[in-house]
Amino acid sequence: MRKKSKTYLDQQGKALPYPWLINTMLMLVGGIQTARLRFWNRNPRYAAERTLRDILTISKDTVYGKEHHFDRILSATSTESFFRLYQSFVPVNDSFETLRPYVERHKNGEENVLFPGKPDMYATTSGTTNEPKWIPMTHKYLKDVYGKMSHIWTWNFIKHRNRVFAGHLFTTVGKECEGYAPDGTIFGAVSGVLVRDIPQIIKKHYTAPACVMSIPDYAARNYTLMRLALQHRDVTLWATANPSTILELLRTLNENTEEMIQDIEHGTISDLFDIPYFIREELYAYVSPKPERADELRQILQEKGKLEPRDFWPWLQYLSTWKCGNTKIYMDKYMDQFDWDKTFYQELGYIATECRFGFSLDDTNESVLFPQFHYYEFVEESELDSPHKNFLQIYQLEQGKRYCAYVTTYSGLFRYNMNDLIEVGGKFKNTPTIHMISKVNGIVSLTGEKLYEPQFLDAVHKAEEDTGIKTKFFVGFADVKESKYHFYYEFEDETINRKTAEAFTQVVDQHLQRINLEYESKRQSFRLHDPETHILLRDAYARFKAACLEDGFRDGQFKFNLLMQDEKRRNKFNIIQRIEDAIDQLGQDIINHANTMDDRRRKRLDRRHQQRKIRQERRIARTIKTN
Length: 627
Description:
Blueprint: H1 20-42, H2 44-59, H3 63-67, H4 70-74, H5 79-89, H6 100-107, E1 121-125, E2 133-137, H7 139-160, E3 168-171, E4 179-180, E5 186-188, H8 190-197, H9 200-203, H10 218-230, E6 235-239, H11 243-255, H12 257-266, H13 277-283, H14 291-304, H15 309-312, E7 318-321, H16 328-331, E8 344-347, E9 358-359, E10 368-369, E11 375-380, E12 402-408, E13 416-428, E14 431-439, E15 443-444, E16 451-452, H17 453-467, E17 471-479, E18 484-491, H18 498-515, H19 517-524, E19 532-535, H20 540-550, E20 563-564, H21 567-575, H22 579-626
Parallel strand pairs: 1-5, 3-6, 6-7, 7-8, 17-20, 18-19
Antiparallel strand pairs: 1-2, 4-5, 9-10, 11-12, 12-13, 13-14, 15-16, 17-18
Helix pairs in contact: 1-7, 10-11, 10-12, 12-14, 17-18, 18-19
């Protein structure tokens, strides 16, 4: 077994320095919060009651608190009666739509609706309707919950690799500010706000400034992120939520290797990419000529044939992404590019826009829960379709069983259904740990887009209105391996050919991008590929149902979603698609994909040529002005 010290050595035996100042600071604040986490996890029942009482006490005089009798709930004298009254007076919010009217009042400037005062910001994410979810973030939640959990998170890095902060940190986060609510409150990404507020002693180690995330063109953004990171030999941490982002960044490097090396050599950022001039001007402070680094990269390329992280970042200490659910399909595509004897790969944790449910603190995929910051409830998987669900407390969970998770937060989410199926692992002290399995209840997510069944239905109906083409039946399936969706249609007009059907799918895809901002983001950044079209035989649904009944489904219990991630059911539809379409599909798909890629390359080259021309004209103008 390797000695631990060797993880800090590069191929030449040069060691990373030990970051005494940063480590001392992070171990102090993070160590205190970790000690408190251990304390509360020793008695999860007491922690759950204390947290819920605190949340209700804070919000008892708000509009929501008065409507749902928080003062009456708080009068309970026993733990059991307290939880029982909360479940009796406060309904489950199965979607954001039941909370939206309250949030809208906050957005328009009204105070004391869900919580005292107004939120510091809103975190936006896709919802079940055309409108995104505006998740309010209170000052208490950002500082006392997010802030303190971040202290534990960074201390955890040091615990596993105590020189992780000795080099540069490569993180990808969302935009801090994407716009403003009607009352002037910002909305954007919580991760962007947290990066903005981190101490300067850590911020100076980031490979890229926050402005990079404001580059509109995804190809240009990915190029800039990778170019700025690649210039540093001492990148020690790479953290991003979704593994598909790592794949896209590595693909960007492979497609632009020589261009990137030239940029590093000369201290430039290629004019071939569409970067707004004001962002480009800000980036000049982060680049300088590095001919030695360029020579090193060229030598690696000559010896290895391609650039891989284990070679160009010899001190990479830490990689942190999601590893649960369907993300493994993306992880498997880059696992052989890292030196796992040196790099510690950790599950990011059960984290969503709505809340930071928990973190992984070891080398497993299990997330440790924070009962001092959130109040959790759970429903067993077997009861998800029951009209009378039995809600369990955090201390009632059983190892190996699966549950749907509900959360109450300091930011105005009460009994909020996360629509996530989780599985219970071991215990941290006396509190169960969990890991993500999949989305439930008509929500599908391949790369974080969280596409809802109602959104898919709406997009198809809008496509019918736009094109005049009518469907008798349709269904959508998520394909994890190919990172795309398959759309199956039974059209009223049985003579519709593949070309027309594919044009219909393009319209559906355009409406989905308008309806769901995260679906649009993943499509524009190429993490989600073009949806694939399938034409079904007449009476497709009846044929499908008959096949399911033959497999043992009971007629009275037969349930069917129109958007799902289910290869077994998709295979049944593959059998009942039109024979002529199934026969020519393989060859046609290859041709279509090649044509699409050619068009994209042509447009990108035209855009780069135009940008280069503009940059040259600006340089000439500046030279004339200087002389």
